[in-house]
Amino acid sequence: MSEWNEDQGLVLDGKVYPYIEKNPLDEISLNAFALGATFATALTLLPLIEFYNLSIYMASLSLFHFLEFYTTARFNPGKVTSRSFLLRNGKGYILSHVFAMCEVGIGRILSPTWKCTSYSLFHRFVFTIGLILMIIGQLARTLAMVTAGKSFSHHVKTEQNADHVLVTEGVYSSLRHPSYFGFFWWALGTQMCLLNPCSFVLFTVVLWKFFNERIEFEEKYLVQFFGQQYLHYRARVPVGIPFIK
Ligand SMILES: C[S@@+](CC[C@H](N)C(=O)[O-])C[C@H]1O[C@@H](n2cnc3c(N)ncnc32)[C@H](O)[C@@H]1O
User: Fold this and answer.
1) Where are the transmembrane segments (predicted)?
2) Which domains does the chain have, with CATH numbers?
């Protein structure tokens, strides 16, 4: 017994397979190759360049986008598409990272000694906290996708799928939106790692506004889908992003 479904892939003898029309293999293999090559180049350059922060950032960015696709393919195969890499994550996302690169370039040209982790104790502190945030953020994001499984989707559902259940265990028992928590802190961590004060402020404002609106919108539908069960869950589990209740 088999059934094609744009949102749940192909169900064949109880097993879920990706929806082939939304998974062009040429595009997927090229994306994976480009991300792997970026990751390897960044790690190779790490001991060779003075501003090694850039290598760490590039490695983390490529790992992040690879894991978005890999985790979806592995734990939620019915919903995986070539867009699951999140490489086309909107103009705002791309512009923010371009802005961050410009800040690195301008900072290194104007004052290479200031734009360096060893410049002061404060610089070392900011860099270290940035690294820790990147690791915690990535772990939270990936764990959220693994734990939510078929209930996770890169787009907010406004209609409930048959396989959509309320997830409250694992990382969801201490964070209500662990993948947003992870993305938020990972992204701020990247800018601390790059010693980018302007981008840090820009990322904070843009991401806070985005997740504040998104969570409100998403929860409206979660309340519709799961009623009292979600209201009780919302009352006891925090978001973990400042000033978002
Ligand atoms: C991009 S995922 C993000 C999930 C969650 N907001 C997070 O940050 O981990 C969006 C989808 O997850 C679903 N979702 C959010 N929280 C959920 C939960 N606790 N249980 C099941 N589905 C959830 C929403 O309905 C939405 O379609």
Assistant:
1) 28-49, 122-140, 183-208
2) 1-82 (no CATH), 91-153+161-245 (1.20.120.1630)
